[in-house]
Amino acid sequence: MLELREVSKAYGEVRALDGCSFEVTPGRLTGFVGPNGAGKTTAMRVVFGLVAPDEGTLAWQGAPVDVDVRRRFGYMPEERGLYPRMRVRDQLVFFGRLSGLSPSAAGRAADRWLGTMGLADRAGSRLDDLSHGNQQRVQLATALLHEPDLVVLDEPFSGLDPLAMESMSSMLREVAGSGAAVLFSSHQLDLVEHLCEDVVVIDSGRVVLRGRLAEMRTAAPYRFVDVTTHGDLDRLLQLDGASVAARTEGQVRLRVPRGVDPAAVLQAIGSDVERVSYEPPTLSELFRAAVGHDRAGDDDAQT
Amino acid sequence: MRRPEGWQRAWVVAAREIRERARTRTFQWSTVFAVLAMVAIVVVPSLGSDGPKTYRVGFAGTVAAGSADAVGAQAKAADARVRTTVYDTVAAGEQAVRARKVDVLLVDGTRLAWRIRADATLGALVANAVQAVQVRDRAAEQGLSIAQVGRLLAPVAMTNDVLGSAAGVDDSARDVAFWAVVLLFLSVSIYGQMVLTGVVQEKQTRVAEVMLSRMRPRELLAGKVLGIGALGLAQFALIVLTAGVSLTAVDSVDAPHVATSLWVWLVVWFVLGYAFYSVVYAAFGALASRVEDASSAAAPISIVMFAGYLAALSALESPDSSLATVLSFLPPTAPMSMPLRMTLTSVPVWQPVAAALLTAASVWLLVRVAGRVYTGAILRSGTRIPLRAAWHGGTQHG
User: How far is A98 from chain B, CA to nearest CA, in Å?
Assistant: First the structure.
């Protein structure tokens, strides 16, 4: 397990991380979400020693993290971190060697990953001759080549088309399934909700929400009721403690306290119903509730 | 780096540098070009004067007795050699001229036959010999003995002494010194710049981050400097070897004699000069953020190197001046100034040894200083990073 404890880092006046604590568990996918400038990238860079924290500790399986421990980590930065003019296979072998693989083991791993990524026929191509999606695949392969115990990916889904996103998702599931701890950041909350068992929400350098997503959703003190009806919607609004989250013609999304009996809700809806659902908040809703304030225009801060 | 894994990772980086750079067309063509240029520099000036020249002179028709000896004696006085052939017929002689078997044919002691055009030197040489023979024959008619005439007409042997333009420095040594300084400057600056741009590129493309998540900054720096240096050393040694082989092959009176120890010293000075400048370039490269900014970030060190180059060249005329002597000991200028002085004047052995040790010691120090700046700056993004900030940041990594 990777543990960050009370990690702080300031750049001049800007507090990029402010007592940030969370953990990443082996065998599970952890989604790392937060507004732009919340400190996601800084936290990831701390894990890899690319940023030295001002305060706080970092531990892997209970022991401090040094360069030898990090050899068992894999990192995929948001921006491309590969040599543009170097051949794809050479590149993989090179990074495999840096992670301590022997030349032959690195060669075998490179060939295996090129096959897995469907890039076997591009082994001899220069990186910048590849499409964005394929470059992203190579970047992922360099992070996974040495079968790391911890994989950290910064925005692995950004700029991918739906098919590439699907294959990236299944790849990450597989990696976690093989026992590695996986942490990745994303702005696509639906995708994170769909993919991750664990979620860490960070805002202004502080972790505002963390844990098992299912538990966090259940633990929320409210539920959402979605109703599509031809009947009278106003009757619903009489429910105790209910508030309207969204409303369009013939459709309403109500926020009700967890204590409200679903049966009472159904009764209030009455007949003439097209569709009804009763559910805990989505990650998006948890996120908005946790981050709360409007962050528009705050995008330039150091990430 | 005290541990083998560190050197192992540095070696992986170095091997990549060597392989990827040696693969580029630019490197391959520049190597070919440099070797050809070096051959040209050595061979072309000596083409015109190929040492003691051997003239081939043919005789036909009426040949006065002693003509061949007279031509030989004239040639010897002019520091040339001559090979003479007598043809039975004029036609056979002319055929020999056309077939380039002889350079000139003397017919009946009065006519010179050339293939394409007359050679003034050879023409004068043969004319003098004919003149001498005729004078001898006329003198004999007047009653002088052949021996008396021989003594009378014995050509005066001239000795040749090359003074050069400045006292004590000979021209060919000056050529060697000039090219040595140019070669050292170009090589150190080309390979130093390679380190500079390599470092910035890794920073700009964020490759540095991916690498430094697996290794210490010092290991990356060492691998980069050693890898590019090994390639530079191979190219430099090849060029120096080419120069040595060409000089031996040409073997003309104009080709300077270069002691073997000087060749070795040239390579040593390349290594020291490269080591000195490349680590500084690496530090300045880490301070920049984009390749476009790299040269301006590194301007201070480039200026120092160029000033050292000009200072070394200015000592061509006065290698014994106290300024030249001081420059040949200062680490930034020693790699160019010391080989210059060693070529031009007699420098006691302790001097280059002391200067080399001094430079090596300063490299040892620079590796520490530049390594710390590099470490503090390589992962910091944003605009150009202040030297102070990098220095203070340098303790936090590695």
Answer: 6
Mean of per-residue pLDDT scores for chain A: 88
Tally of domains in chain B: 2
**ipTM attached to this prediction:** 0.81
Contacts of residue A200, defined as CB under 8 A and 6 or more positions apart, other chains included, come to: A22, A30, A31, A32, A33, A183, A207, A209, A210
pLDDT at site B166: 47
pLDDT tops 60 at residue A179 = yes
Give the residue-averaged pLDDT of A143-150: 93
Q: Which residues of A touch B379 (CB under 8 A)?
A: 45, 50-51
Residue A68, in any domain of the structure: yes
CB spacing of A82 vs B207 below 8 angstroms = yes
Q: How many domains, chain A?
A: 2
Interface test with A, best of B213, B289, B372, B379 (most A CBs within 10 A): B213
pLDDT top residue among A272 and A1: A1
Residues A232 and A194 in one domain: no
Q: Which residues contact B91 (CB under 8 A, 6 or more apart)?
A: none
Note the pLDDT of residue B329.
93
One domain for residues B35 and B152: no
CB contact under 8 A, B213 and A94: no
Last residue of a domain, one of B145, B162, B179: B162
Q: Are A197 and A141 in a shared domain? A: yes
Do residues B23 and B92 share a domain? Answer: no
Tell me the average confidence (pLDDT) per consecutive run of 10 residues in chain B, 398 residues long. Answer: 81 94 92 90 68 79 83 79 87 88 87 83 84 81 76 66 50 82 92 92 88 88 94 92 84 67 90 93 88 88 93 87 91 92 87 94 89 82 73 62
Q: Report CB contact under 8 Å: A73, B397.
A: no
How much of chain A exceeds pLDDT 70, in percent?
Answer: 96
List residues of B whose CB lies inside 8 A of any A CB: 5, 9, 12-13, 16, 19-20, 205-207, 209-216, 379, 393, 396-397
Q: Which residues of B touch A97 (CB under 8 A)?
A: 12
**Looking at the domain assignment, is residue A303 inside a domain?**
no
CATH code of A173's domain? 3.40.50.300
Range of the domain at B313: 2-44+169-397
- List A residues 94-133 in contact with B (Cβ-Cβ < 8 A): 94-95, 97-100
CATH of the domain at B150: 3.40.190
Confirm whether A25 is domain-assigned.
Answer: yes
Query: Of all helices (H) and strands (E), which one includes residue B82?
Result: strand B81-86
Interface contact flag, A98 B209, Cβ < 8 Å: no
Of B162, B195, B228, the residue that ends a domain is B162
Same domain, residue pair B129 and B206: no
Domain limits at A262?
A: 221-279
Residues of chain B contacting residue A73, judged by C-beta atoms under 8 Å apart: 213
Q: What is the mean pLDDT of residues A256-270?
A: 80
Specify if A170 maps to a domain: yes
